């Protein structure tokens, strides 16, 4: 199976887009990140939900104490208090390098190996600089289940 068969087409994040737009597209497509393109349209990075949430919603001191937190910390409701400001932020401030890219014609096993190598739940399909879509581990597992149910 080729990766293009599992690809989900998404928007490409560009300068000027907000986190609201990124979140909306990630939720619509059920993906954990989107590619980021420079002014010339080249994929030059990625915008990751995990990275954004880590830096906008979770104070470092809470991450360090995560194993010791109880359920009665409602007074530390930082994301809700800052929700509008977070959503209005420009996405370009959260661009990471794009390590997990692969050709759309690559075999599934290679895609899974690259996801594992870079500890990623998704990768971008890029052919000759053209973005073709994103493939997620969830899509791979969904395909396995669908084929099993078909008896294939």
TrEMBL record:
Biological source species: Marichromatium gracile (Chromatium gracile)
Protein name: CBS domain-containing protein
Top-rank lineage group of the source organism: Bacteria
Signal sequence extent: none
Cited Gene3D superfamilies: CBS-domain
Residue stretches making up the CBS domain: 101-140
Family annotation (InterPro entries): CBS_dom, CBS_dom_sf
């Amino acid at each position: 199976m080729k990766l293009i068969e599992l690809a989900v087409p998404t928007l490409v994040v560009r300068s000027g887009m907000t986190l609201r737009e990124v979140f909306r597209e990630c939720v619509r497509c059920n993906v954990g990140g989107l590619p980021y393109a420079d002014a010339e349209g080249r994929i030059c990075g990625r915008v990751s939900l995990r990275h954004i949430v880590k830096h906008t919603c979770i104070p470092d001191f809470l991450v360090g104490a995560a194993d010791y937190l109880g359920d009665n910390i409602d007074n530390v409701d930082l994301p809700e208090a800052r929700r509008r400001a977070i959503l209005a932020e420009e996405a370009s401030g959260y661009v990471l390098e794009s390590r997990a890219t692969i050709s759309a014609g690559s075999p599934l096993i290679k895609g899974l190996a690259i996801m594992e190598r870079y500890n990623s739940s998704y990768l971008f399909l890029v052919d000759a600089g053209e973005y073709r879509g994103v493939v997620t581990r969830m899509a791979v597992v969904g395909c396995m289940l669908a084929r099993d149910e078909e008896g294939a």
